Automatic annotation (TrEMBL), chains A, B:
Residues forming coiled coils: none
InterPro entries reported in the protein's UniProt record: ATP_grasp_subdomain_1, CoA-bd, Ligase_CoA_dom, NAD(P)-bd_dom_sf, Succ_CoA_lig_flav_dom, Succinyl-CoA_synth-like
PANTHER family: COA BINDING DOMAIN CONTAINING PROTEIN, PEPTIDYL-LYSINE N-ACETYLTRANSFERASE PATZ
Domain CoA-binding, chain residue ranges per copy: 262-357
Origin: domain of life: Bacteria
Family per similarity comment: In the N-terminal section; belongs to the acetate CoA ligase alpha subunit family.
Record-given protein name: CoA-binding protein
GO molecular function annotations of the record: acetate-CoA ligase (ADP-forming) activity; ATP binding
Organism: Streptomyces typhae
Length: 718, 718
């Protein structure tokens, strides 16, 4: 059907349903949509009375399925409104009466239009039930779903999601994204299903919901897939009550222009600067000055001439020259009028530290700020934040304790508490950061904007973000896709398990718990998801330290056999691959280890060995181009004390780096407390090392691999 | 059938199969076993030729299944040897010819006995395929399995295991132990299956393999379960090549008697004691003396009169009086003769530090020690160990660094490297231990023995064990079941993912990866399994500190909303339950928190609150008897600095404890580095607190709950 005819027909039908005051389409209506978009369904016809049913059934070759048709009955099976495999006139008659009687008993006031008589779908081992659907996600908009069908679908939740629309290749990729992928390819001698036909059902559903955003949910459940096709046995379509309001968007160039002035300002004004210790306006001033910010710092306070040794202005409008950032340190009720002045001055960025807005129920006060910002072109960070740090600028625009360890990782947090945890962890581990940013209420600037900036920022080599929600999931995905090829993006998505609260009118809806959708779509955007706060912090600290692996071959070299076993567990848990050591390399390893040590992988050099054995085997691993990453298991002994191991290992790594050989090396140190110093020493020299854990170093290596794959830096997809 | 007849009939059949040189039973043979044990199967008969098939089929009411019968064809479907739903003489004839032809093509030399004609099993939504089986696990012996059947069984691996035999109740519990349990109870209007009939199939299979240990595997796949019964559609039985050799066992009283002398010795001899610093025999002597051991210490060395100020003996036999423990610090090759002397002296325990035995391939040398030990009744710890610590005795019988922080947790490790990690972690966190024991090669004493002892040891309130294998899984389960009601047992099972290497001849075998069986059976034994090394260490440190919860109601009190969200995620991840706060308690919380703070659960007191708000809300949680555990989320602010929070919280907890109210309280501290000191302060005072992580405190609370449930100290089973 030509696209225009198709749209016209669906438009007319949806309008009629709306006019009827309904949001759920009947089966015949849904079939009109399916036909318009080429979604394959079994032959079927509506029978308004029992004799019509007999006539319809006679037309199909073989037994039929009979189903109640009523706009008031959504769950037909529960209503006793479905009979499968009816053959012969007598049985069709009996089934018709039974269905109508059951439906009347189930919903006495339901309007019953008749009974649908449908071609019986194929069954048996060659027929596989799958589910294809689409939902409207509050964060990501139209999302298409594919999974295995059948009675177990809600038990196993073996389902995958993509942003709609999808093209043919992406649709096909969904068949391989479920755990039961192999079943679709055929197992135990059974033939596989027609993958192209299934993918086509997915693609067409995604096209339908994209072209008609008012369609909230589509559910093809089941789609019966066989080696010769895929038919949707049931099509359910639900309309949204209303279309979501469009959000204001900015171009990439606009975002980068304002972000550059926010993150590399030449001039900062502090609205509400104060001389009084303990006041936020004083803490911010002191942090700006003590942090060593080399640009201009202008205190603004109508009741002071001089603050912390700087000339104070009555209003931001009195400051001579351009101002890049206005940091607000005044109570909520005064913010709007001060923001007006900031707008008149032409300041592009307002950093709104004060709380007392949406988070305390004062949504109106916050909306007012947003309106002022939009009117004047002022972008807002916050409100309700601790501020932000840009260490390479010496900028601590915050009331918290200053932090000045420059480095490659940029971190953001939606919550102030998590911001303080970031700060404490960074200080405790001496993690170098390029920025720490509080996003708070995200009235305007949010993760997309910062991701866009950090993607371009040469001082940032890794981005880590704590978030509880995304205002615009698609904008985030776009920013992530632009950034991931250049640097890792780590996300801690909080509120994972709070899902399930969404009212769902379809199977797909019930499967699309918030987190299931987040998880699939963030992964497709190439984001490395951290399972918890500590992991986000460890990934942020370690990922920029580790060089990018050039292949999948991981080798464990261990002094402790016991660590080797646990490290192997961790390698498997993290989706990494233990290299199968080639015979020549195995022989090389064996030359250095005792005869009872184990070559293979893990390479077990045994615990009694001197530093030279660790060194020689590590050299072998670095030298051999077939090895791509090393996992070291150190065992504290009198023969090889921790710092001796650390110094020797760091020296070897450094030597190879000078030769241009730079592979990721992580280490687990098992020993007495001296291993802690050895870990710090190694970490500072590019070996990601942890004491008393075999899991952490491998988890970090796994995160690096996940990023490298997403960034397309490793061949294949594991 | 009377038990004796049953056994006799099976005995005769198995002997005939053996005599035939086979290990796989044919379907008719398997049916004899099934009938003898009352395992319900469909009606079926063997047809040796095509006319016999027609006659057999005519006897059953409805269509039949036809299957090839050949001792040489195990995978009938792959061989094209199965046709389902054959009805009428013509079709039966055609099917017979087709099956035989396909089987000949598949396995030209196979001996074909005929075609089995079988009653067609029920199908449709009310018929659920499940799998019931039994395998012989190298660690646990006969293990019975139950899971969901169908083509997806190997994809979803939704299967559960129990030690065989099981009684009716335990069999029934297996139906609820799979993820798809709800399906068996009936979903979406479909009726549930006959649970009793399914459980009976499980029970009877477990009885069969228990009474005939030579049966290696049994596979009922599928069992078709309906609301009116459960029939095994296919029964496969495999015999073992040989029965496993029985192991020598000790009574509980014998174990306790020798363990008491090992762990609370009055007199210790050091074989190979030395004055030369750096030698193991010197390190052991120095550690025994410096550790403050108050019993007798007798150095044994034929070439010295005096060692570290103590009279040295030429031989252990020269020592006057009884000796409880002989610690060996001599090279492997001298151990056997010294052990003979130890045996002659009547010393009940030999601690074999030396390496150079089974771990280096010298199995013969190790077997010699075991034989000497058995002859003289000397129990052996090791060889190939770092030794052991018994802090309450001041005993450091090890060559490693001494450790003397007395406390409630006993730790064992199979690996020396992991032992060093235990030592370092304990020292770094000031964890009080009752014992640290290296088990090494486990030539004799193993986890069962130590678990039996620690279960009785009044100084031990928590046991944590690192292990790579169990010599006797059933003995371990028995010891764990005796210990768990009294104190938590934490196990880190290494080598989780190395499984899958086992050659499996049945579906059940393929599902029974080593770790799947370990995981189920350890859980049933009440063991708290740690997912990794660090978790084992953290559980060991924290579990004895936390009081036992008296119910399931967990309340989160947080200053940081962001921490509250992450703590909620962690609560769900750990299988804990966020209390639904009753209205009166909610009102009480609201009285203390700002109007925009959130009561409910988490109780969000908001970040700007003074210490008094934390204190008041914590008091409420402790006071209210409906609240059973508290999770605190602290946010570092100027108003409530870390140590102020820590001191106030510790004071309140102490006050309630003095009143006899002692609930588990864990805390996540988000803040700058001062939170580390605050965490140490809190931990020492009974509040399990961690910095920079929301996951760790809740994981530990989750471990405490898992133990409390296993110990029967909480109502219900979640």
């Amino acid at each position: 059907m030509p696209a225009e005819d198709r749209k016209e027909r669906v438009r007319a039908l949806l309008d009629a349903v709306r006019a009827d005051g309904r949001t759920a389409l009947t089966a015949p209506e849904a079939k009109v949509l399916a036909d318009a978009y080429g979604i394959a369904v079994p032959g079927e016809e509506l029978a308004r009375d029992v004799e019509e049913a007999v006539a319809r059934a006679a037309r199909f070759d073989g037994p039929v399925v009979m189903k109640i048709v009523s706009p008031d009955i959504l769950h037909k099976t529960e209503a006793g409104g479905v009979v499968v495999g009816v053959a012969g006139a007598a049985d069709v008659r009996a089934a018709f009466h039974r269905i109508v009687a059951a439906a009347r008993a189930y919903a006495p006031v339901a309007h019953i239009e008749g009974v649908q008589v449908q071609e019986l779908l194929p069954s048996g081992p060659a027929a596989q039930e799958v589910i294809v659907g689409a939902v409207t996600d509050p964060t990501f908009g139209k999302v298409v779903a594919f999974g295995l069908g059948g009675v177990l679908v809600e038990v196993h939740k073996d389902v995958t999601f993509r942003l709609a629309p999808v093209d043919a290749d992406e649709a096909l990729s969904m068949l391989d994204s479920i755990r039961a992928a192999q079943v679709l390819r055929g197992v135990r001698g059974a033939p596989g299903v027609d993958r192209g036909a299934v993918a086509e059902q997915i693609r067409r559903v995604s096209q339908l919901v994209t072209e008609f955003p008012e369609i909230a949910e589509v559910d093809l459940n089941p789609v019966v897939a066989t080696p010769r096709g895929a038919l949707a046995a049931d099509v359910r379509v639900l309309l949204a009550d209303r279309a979501p309001a469009p959000r204001r968007t900015y171009t990439r160039a606009e975002i980068l222009a304002s972000m550059r002035r926010l993150m590399r300002p030449r001039s900062v004004a502090v609205i509400g600067a104060s001389n009084e210790p303990g006041k936020i306006g004083n803490s911010v001033m002191r942090n700006l000055i003590d942090g060593g910010f080399s640009g201009e710092i202008h205190p603004v306070n109508p009741r002071a001439d001089d603050i912390e040794g700087r000339k104070a202005y009555k209003s931001v409008t009195d400051i001579p020259g351009e101002v890049d950032v206005a940091v607000f340190a005044i109570p909520a009720k005064f913010v709007a009028s001060a923001l007006e002045e900031v707008g008149r001055k032409g300041v592009p960025n307002a950093v709104l530290i004060p709380s007392g807005f949406a988070e305390t129920g004062e949504q109106g006060l916050q909306d007012e700020l947003v309106a002022i910002g939009e009117r004047h072109g002022v972008r807002l960070l916050g409100p309700n934040i601790y501020g932000y740090y840009a260490t390479w600028q010496g900028l601590c625009a915050t009331f918290c304790t200053p932090y000045d360890v420059k480095g490659p990782v940029a971190l953001t947090s939606q919550s102030g508490g998590i911001g303080m945890a970031i700060l404490g962890f960074a200080r405790a581990t001496n993690t170098g950061v390029s920025a720490i940013v509080g996003l708070g209420n995200k009235s305007d600037l949010d993760e997309d904007d910062f991701l866009t900036w950090f993607g371009e920022d040469a001082d940032t080599r890794c981005v880590a973000m704590h978030l509880e929600d995304l205002k615009d999931g698609r904008a985030f995905v776009e920013a992530a896709r632009a950034t991931v090829p250049k640097k890792p993006v780590v996300v801690l998505k909080a509120g994972r398990t709070a899902a399930g609260a969404r009212a769902a009118g379809s199977h797909t809806g019930a499967l699309a718990g918030d987190d299931a959708v987040y998880d699939d779509i963030l992964r497709q955007a190439g984001v490395v998801r951290a399972p918890g706060l500590r992991e986000m912090l460890e990934y942020a600290r370690a990922l920029p330290v580790l060089p990018t692996p050039k292949g999948d071959n991981v080798v464990i070299i261990t002094g402790a056999g016991g660590s080797g076993v646990l490290l192997s567990d961790a390698v498997t848990d993290n989706g990494l691959r233990l290299m199968e050591i080639p015979a020549d390399l195995d022989a090389s390893f064996r030359a250095f280890i005792p005869p009872f040590g184990a070559a293979g992988n893990p390479v077990d050099i045994t615990g009694g060995e001197p530093p030279s054995t660790y060194e020689a085997t590590i050299r072998l691993g670095l030298e051999d181009a077939r090895v791509h990453a090393l996992v070291l298991g150190y065992w504290h002994t009198i023969v090889t004390p921790p710092m001796v191991f650390a110094e020797s290992t760091a020296r070897v790594i450094e030597e190879f780096r000078a030769r241009g050989i730079d592979k990721p090396v992580v280490a687990s140190l098992a020993g007495d407390v001296e291993v802690e110093e050895a870990c710090r020493y190694l970490f500072e020299r590019g070996v990601v090392a942890y004491p008393y854990t075999t899991e952490q170093p491998v988890a970090v290596l796994g995160a690096k691999y996940r990023w490298a794959r997403a960034a397309g830096l490793l061949g294949g997809d594991r």
